[in-house]
Amino acid sequence: MRLTRRDAVRLLAAAGGSLPLLALPGVAFGDDETAEKPQPEPKTEPKREPTRVDRALDWLVRHQDPSGTWSDAEFTTRCEGQACTATHERSPVETTASTLLLFLACGETHQSKTYGDTVKNGLRSLFNHGSKDGRFGDLAGRAGLREHIEGALAVIEAYGLTGSRLFKARGQNAARWLVSRQRDSGAWGVDGDDARLTGQAALVLRVTGQADLEVSAEAVERTYTWLAGQADAKTGRVADDDSATALALLARVWLSDVATARKDPLVAKAAAHLAERDIKKLGSGTITHATWALHQAGSDDAWGAWLKQLVALAGKRQVAGETACARGSISPRPGEGRVTATVHTARALATVWTYRRVFGDR
Question: In the predicted model, what is the mean pLDDT of residues 176-189?
């Protein structure tokens, strides 16, 4: 089955109504030869049904703390009526940054009319957990690195989308702080090299360059080389970890040129491995990373099959109804919080309009 970008958009639309009419930098709908000619804009915006992503955003807005924070452990304090379930201990800094990344992926910034105040308050909360040297977060060890990476991604993405000087220095300093923690091996980690953390750090390097901020070419090369060396020659897997495998695949695509990535046999092997995974058995973060990876480098058949699984899973796990407090949220697997599951699933669903397929529709 050949799944084009337009097919993917229609599939997601069928699952939850019309897609938001947005086109982020580098993404433009209707850019193929069969696109209809643009029509004059109507005087009033046509009414449309909310998508699954819209409903997730609505739930997240209703469960944001007045401080601007999102917390997997304390979001129920914002419930009305019957309280939501599935609290979980996770860093509120990391959770807030991840949630901001979803809003930003949907084109919502601090300047937006719809969710501008929500994003502004979230960024203010994130800044309150930042230091002058560029670090985000309060925790030590591996959890502290995760906090910083998500915080850096959020601020750099905010700068890339808006060009606001409010975020430029913060984003630049966050990127520099992260590079200063790169290990001699080229990886990131606490007690040793950590493939998943290194793959997440690679995303920061990528968006830093995209935002026209300074990024160390040496750091990029060392990251790429280390991740490439971790892939199993037969399967393309990295560290026996599906998230690490997906993130390493993304690094091999995004930190190199397309021609090199196309010829890389380990990219194809890693994509094939991810495509065979049972999406229902994966954590929400792994689902997001695998979705990005298959969207970038999976075959048309693999990407199409994965997208159908994702839409079906979201349909099964998203709380329906018009009055329940939990409406729009994603019911998590054991060991995850409702905020995290909602954010990651919605980010996966938003992949089609957030990124282009680097390899293109084949």
Answer: 98
Q: How many CA atoms lie within 13 A of 325 on its CB side?
A: 14
Across the chain, the runs of DSSP E, i.e. the strands, are none
Query: According to the model, what pLDDT value does residue 49 have?
Result: 60
Spatial separation of the C-alpha atoms in residues 177 and 145, rounded to whole Å: 11
**Quick one: pLDDT band at residue 353, thresholds 50, 70, 90?**
confident
d(CA 51, CA 284): 19
Q: Is the pLDDT of residue 310 over 50?
A: yes
For residue 258, what pLDDT is reported? 82
Query: What are the extents of the domains in the chain?
Result: 1-31+49-89+267-362, 90-189
The average pLDDT across 80-84 equals 93
CA gap 300, 144 in Å, rounded: 38
Strand-pair partners of 231: 238
Rounded to whole angstroms, how far apart are CA atoms 149 and 111? 24
Query: How confident is the model over 129-156, as a mean pLDDT?
Result: 96
Nearest CA among 299, 289, 279, 205 for reference residue 244:
289
Asked if residue 176 lies in contact with residue 134, where contact means CB atoms within 8 angstroms, the answer is yes
CA 178 from chain center: how many Å? 19
Compute φ and ψ for 83, nearest 5 degrees: -65, 150
Alpha helices (runs of H) in 236-360, residue ranges in sequence order: 242-254, 258-263, 265-275, 284-297, 300-317, 338-349, 351-354
Separation between Cα atoms, residue 147 and residue 92, nearest integer Å: 9
Does position 56 have pLDDT exceeding 70, yes or no?
Answer: yes
CA distance 151 to 145: 10
Q: Which amino acid does the sequence have at 339?
A: V
Residue percentage of the chain with pLDDT more than 70: 85
CB 51 within 8 A of CB 20: yes
Rounded-to-integer distance, Cα 182 and Cα 178, Å: 7
330 forms beta bridges with 318
Residues written for the chain = 362
